[in-house]
């Protein structure tokens, strides 16, 4: 299968050398740069080395300055936030399922849930689906009660849970006004083949198999905005899979981002605002 | 001649009876420790999944028992300060018992909380890392300081007796006393005065540590949680301290009376009467505070508070409030202490104290469980929780361990005030 696939790609691929020959610039330089650019992308050479190697010839050939550029996936200064449009949400729980699949959470552990709120008396009733990930509060009560600082607010806005420090006292679960934390009691979907083969690299750290010593059993677990996906430049799983496109994700520090604009709309509100926790998840009513 | 030997024999049998009682008591404790140990072993191997705890009700019986024993300890210690700091000599006979009980109760409380940790192997993290905002983080440190203080004060209280025991008593008891006296040899009156001074100073330092640090702090641990509307009241830590005084006094009465009876020694009725009056005094204050707590919560008409109160007062678990906390823990004891037929009986007064202790266990359960049954996200239905057999048997094991430590301590340490005239705690 793999070979056929490679063959198709090779046949349809344009020959770089021929294309470069048609341009007025140096073909050899183009090919060498392309090759090293691949190495750079794969992380075999540093950007500084790449720039040092080609700075002079680029200047000569293109009359342009080659400089070390800020990495596009460099998220420094970003403060992540989420907006959930309640009018678009159909209550299908795809977010819950995709979150479980992405983070490979065991039975009883769920970072995302959808609550159905029914109000009024028949025939004047309303049904609202409230999807609830971790609110990633700016004033997180869970972090202030943690006796060992295993949970804390990161600069990027994410409330982090350090599974390797947590002692499992569950004070944070009692203190969370949103019920966004669950305890890993050590159960597994052992009716499923390969359930223990791999764990999600939550917070970007590979945890290997779900087995003794590696699994965060006996600790409290929570949503981390799919930090391992953010690092790859992807959106959290719940945002990407939402069938109604009800979820928006982005940088709340950037006033031009979609989330910032939506969060400023008069439809926006946050859960239990009176609690003073300042959630980073906004809802549109 | 015959009469004499008869007397001798009866004296021997009394001692034999006491020794047999002690043996039976210790073997009963060891058996329940084995049963409890099996449950604890099961929990250690399988993790917290063998308990009835869930992500909806993360704190259960062990947390309730932990605050119960911290309360007993603080109460017992505060009672000892009445003697050693405020010079209420009429209670002196229970002074050292109070200190020793306080120490053992802390050991039991910390064992419960250790058992409750998801990662027991990381318990020491609580010492390595420190979060200034976390009340729990402060508590861990206060508990340790408090336990050191209790041990030092107890040592000063026993010092002269330890020296005497090391000289006169043989066997294990004498040897232990010789080690515990830590090289101290001074039996002079001046050194005894010095001991009392130290005990007074330590007691005085201990009062704020016990009230604000240990038990008020444990109350604050709950009261500071804004997400739990029932706990989040400034009256909460005060109720914690007062109910600690209630349970601590009650426990000491029961311990003193039972232990004297078991050893076939006379029980000081006046002492018991005085202490039960003190206990009822604390109990009435406690009930008053709780009354206002519920009244204000109810009248504030906040739906989340009303919901928790309705779980406490009317749900299927309301027997714990009405039956244990109010009826057994308050109504019956108050009746027993004031009723003309029962108020002069050591038996009935002891029963009243035991009931008060049981009532406070109910108080602790009612603090921890009902508020968690009501979920913080309102569309969720109420959760359910009742401790399962693993939790009960483990608790049995831990409590038996505490009682065993206490019984051994009573046997080996000079906890009984021997010479009645040493009573000048100025």
CATH topology of chain B: Formate dehydrogenase/DMSO reductase fold
Q: Give the helix proportion of chain B (percent range).
A: over 70%
Overall domain count of chain B: 1
- Low-pLDDT runs of chain B: 1-6, 419-426
Q: How many individual helices of chain A? A: 10
Shape of chain B: globular
CATH superfamily of chain B: Formate dehydrogenase/DMSO reductase domain
Alpha carbon gap, first and last residue of chain B: 50 Å
- Which two chains touch over the largest interface? A-B, 43 and 42 residues
Q: What structural class do you assign from the helix and strand content of chain A?
A: alpha+beta
In round numbers, the mean pLDDT of chain B is: 90
Order of helices and strands of chain A: HHHHEHEEHEEHEEHHEHEE
Task: Describe the protein's architecture and organization.
The complex is a heterodimer of chains A (285) and B (426). With 285 residues, chain A is an alpha+beta fold. Chain A has two domains: 2-62, no CATH class; 80-284, Alpha-Beta Plaits. Chain A contains ten helices and ten strands. In chain A, strands 8-1-10-9 form a four-stranded mixed beta sheet. In chain A, a hairpin with a 5-residue loop joins β4 (151-153) and β5. Chain A starts with a helix and ends with a strand. In chain A, 34% of the residues are buried. The model of chain A has no long low-confidence stretch (mean pLDDT 88). Chain B has 426 residues and is mainly α. Chain B has a single domain (17-412), classed as Formate dehydrogenase/DMSO reductase fold. Helices cover 75% and strands 0% of the residues of chain B. Chain B has helices at 2-46, 61-84, 95-116, 125-128, 135-168, 171-180, 189-223, 235-262, 269-299, 303-314, 318-338, 346-373, 389-412. In chain B, α1 packs antiparallel against α13 and α5 (135-168) packs antiparallel against α7. Chain B starts with a helix and ends in a 14-residue tail after the last helix.
